[in-house]
Amino acid sequence: MSDLTIVLALLPVLIIQFGLMIFALVDLIRNPRTVGPKWLWGIIIVIGNIIGPVLYFIFGRRNY
Amino acid sequence: MSLLEVKKLTKRYGEELAVEDVSFELTERTSTALIGPNGAGKTTTLSMLAGLLKQTEGSISWHNGTGIGFLPQYPQFFPWLTALEFTEMAAKISGVEAKKARAQSVRTLEFVGLGNAKDKKAGAFSGGMKQRLGLAQAIVHQPKLLLLDEPVSALDPSGRREIMNLLKSLREDTTILYSTHILNDAEEMTDQLLFLQHGKLVEQGSLKDVKTRYAEPRIRVTFKDPESAGLFTGKAPWDAVRDGHIVYIPVKGGHPAIEEVMGYFAANPSGADGVERQTASLEEIFLKVAGRQ
Amino acid sequence: MNQFGVLLKKEWREHVRNYKILWLPAVFVLFGIIEPVTQYFLPQIIESAGNLPEGAVFEFPTPEPEQVLVSVMGQYQFIGLIILILAYMGAVAGERRSGTATLLYVRPLSYPAYFLSKWVMAVSAGLASVWLGFLGAAYYIWLFFGDIAAGDFLQFAASYSLWIILFLTIVLTASAALPHQGLAAAVAMALVFAAQILDSLLGVYWTASPLKLPAYAQSWLAGAPDAGDFWWSSVLAVLLTLLFIGLGIWLSKRNAAQTKV
Questions:
Q1: Could you tell me if B251 and B218 are in contact, meaning their C-beta atoms sit under 8 angstroms apart?
Q2: Of the residues A33, A60, C92, C181, which has the maximum number of CB atoms within 10 A of its CB?
Q3: Among candidate residues A53, A26, A34, the one with its CA nearest the CA of residue C87
Q4: What chain C residue is nearest to B89 in terms of C-alpha separation?
Q5: List of residues 6+ apart from C242 with CB closer than 8 A
């Protein structure tokens, strides 16, 4: 398998992971009322890998 | 016609009695104010009537087919639904036909002054807008009985005025039971008063009845100047208390009648500018009843 | 039926506007494809890490395609279940606690419609996520390790789905039962993990158990599980699901008074 296929194979992983992160960050910036401080959520989303954005969507937004 | 009859309603939380032995009746198309200090059991009583809480003892009997609308003190909305989406959902759950629900919701939102905000999400609403949306969801299905918990307490004066006016315009075809600790509001829109304290109904009746029962009425005479007032106080044929250029004559057992007082001034010009009969404000009665307990 | 439709629409909007409809499948797909990718690149990763003695040759056995799919399921059995718990722990408890449920409960609400609307939405979103994740995994497995028979795959994913449906039902019922979503999460987690431990310690004495469905799902990839064991476990899973749905409806109604007024 060539290097190109490897890169192509990894691309979806990167797209979904970064997509999720950017999506969460955009929502965080536009969210007028987060649960807890925004900067902390920013850090959690960026360094939290896959789980960071998930934690933000579950605990950082007012969902109910 | 009686719409709702409450008998010996009691709610106990363990040892603590939140509401004790409360009985009253609501007549169709009347407004009843449930007044009392914070913690008197107003919210608990309304929650039982709304079916959110089950009473420990006592009975609540409805006239057949009475739909209710309920507005909690701090109504909470799903932040991700728009005002129209929420109102329409509320209408449908309350049995409004699917075809009519949308139009009826739009009309109701316009009525409460949210016509322009109907497609905004409730999460972005201010306190006043939430209160209006709360009223909209309570009336959208055109219930016969409206239960409102402190409907205007959290609002600023102009918001309070607007909501009070909306409520007054609903009186024609709706029975309203609302709680408040602001007595001016209660005085404004009340056929029946229910006075709750420490979970017990300590006073009830029409506003007029309660007032005559408590407030010793008095006749208020305004004089041009304190001197004339003083002179009159000295020679008045009745008990009279002077306060600056004003003199109060307490009325006991219907005497003196206001005509009698006016006749006196017609016969003896004493520098009186105005004569009027006064009853104590609800606020004074409230303090008196509260003090008696 | 009418109320069910109205409430299902509300649940759908909740999923869309809180982006659950996006992030839930995204996470399952990510975990589904990361597993085959790391397994494939593992030898290179270790080599590039360096410290191998001169001349040492490591033979990494290439895993069978089916083994990789089973490791994906292993991921779902831990991190996947936790994410499903977090996503649905507040379904009922959260609404009561914030007070948003009050304006529903004060109406002539059908509690079966109320609970079932949540159940249908959670099960649809949960299953769609799991299936998309497995499909993503299968694609990468095909790319790197070879193919898995379509029939085996379907039997595997369908059997695992029965377990996911039961699991989500337990989470929703816990949410209806308890006053706080955190408590609901803790109880659902404790209940399922305790049952799993019990089943693995004493489970040798019985073969029909919904907790063994993931293991039977795995067996479809290497032939077939014992038909009797599998069907009895499936029947038990369906019965337990129905039981928990009934319990969830009853608890939603019974605990309605806990809503914040």
A1: yes
A2: C92
A3: A53
A4: C6
A5: none
What span, in angstroms and rounded, lies between the C-alpha atoms of B84 and B74? 19
What is the distance in angstroms between the Cα of C45 and the nearest Cα belonging to chain A?
13
Residue C50 is predicted with a pLDDT of 64
C206-261 pLDDT tens trace: 888 999 999 999 999 988 888 889 999 999 999 999 999 999 999 999 999 999 98
| Full residue range of the structural domain in which residue A22 is found | 3-60
H-type alpha helices, chain C: 2-17, 20-48, 65-75, 81-88, 93-98, 102-105, 111-144, 150-177, 181-202, 213-219, 227-254
Q: In terms of DSSP H, where are the helices of B191-281? A: 207-214, 226-235, 258-267
pTM equals 0.88
Contact between C260 and B76 using a beta-carbon 8 Å cutoff: yes
| Domain locations along chain C | 2-35+65-258
- DSSP class per residue in C53-114: PTT----PPPPPHHHHHHHHHHHIIIIIHHHHHHHHTTTTHHHHHHTTTHHHHTS---HHHH
pLDDT one-digit tens code per residue, B39-64: 899 999 999 999 999 999 999 998 87
Q: Whose structure tokens read 């003083």?
A: B230
- Adjacency order of strands within the sheet including B145-149: B68-71, B145-149, B175-180, B31-35, B192-197, B200-206
Q: Do B79 and A62 touch (CB under 8 A)?
A: yes
Residue in C100, C36, C252 with CA at minimum distance from that of residue A6: C36
CB atoms within 10 A of CB A19: 15
Best interface-test mutation with A: which of C14, C19, C121, C132 has the largest number of A CBs within 10 A? C19
User: Any chain A CB within 8 A of the CB of B127?
Assistant: no
CB atoms within 10 A of CB B146: 22
| Closest residue by Cα to residue C208 from C228, C192, C191 | C228
Q: Write down the mean pLDDT value for chain C.
A: 92
Taking an 8 Å cut-off on Cβ atoms, the answer to whether C143 and A9 are in contact is yes
DSSP β-bridge partners for residue B241: B248
Parallel/antiparallel/unpaired status of strands B192-197 and B200-206: antiparallel
What is residue A38's predicted lDDT score, i.e. its pLDDT?
A: 93
Pairwise CA distance, residues B25 & B145, whole Å: 13
Query: CA-based angle C226:C230:C236, to the nearest 5?
Result: 150
- Whole-number CA gyration radius for chain A: 15
* Complex ipTM: 0.91
Record the tokens describing residue C207, joined without a space. 């073969």
Measured between alpha carbons, how far is B261 from B188 in angstroms, rounded to an integer? 29
Contact (CB<8Å) A33/B78: no
Number of alpha carbons in the 13 Å side-chain half-sphere of residue C87: 33
Number of separate domains in chain A: 1
Task: Please give the pLDDT value at position C122.
Answer: 98
In chain B, positions 143-172, which contact chain C (CB-CB < 8 Å)? 149
Q: State the Cα–Cα distance between residues B247 and B237, nearest whole angstrom.
A: 13
How much is the pLDDT for A2?
Answer: 64
B79 interface with A at CB cutoff 8 Å? yes
Confidence of residue B184 (pLDDT cuts 50, 70, 90): confident
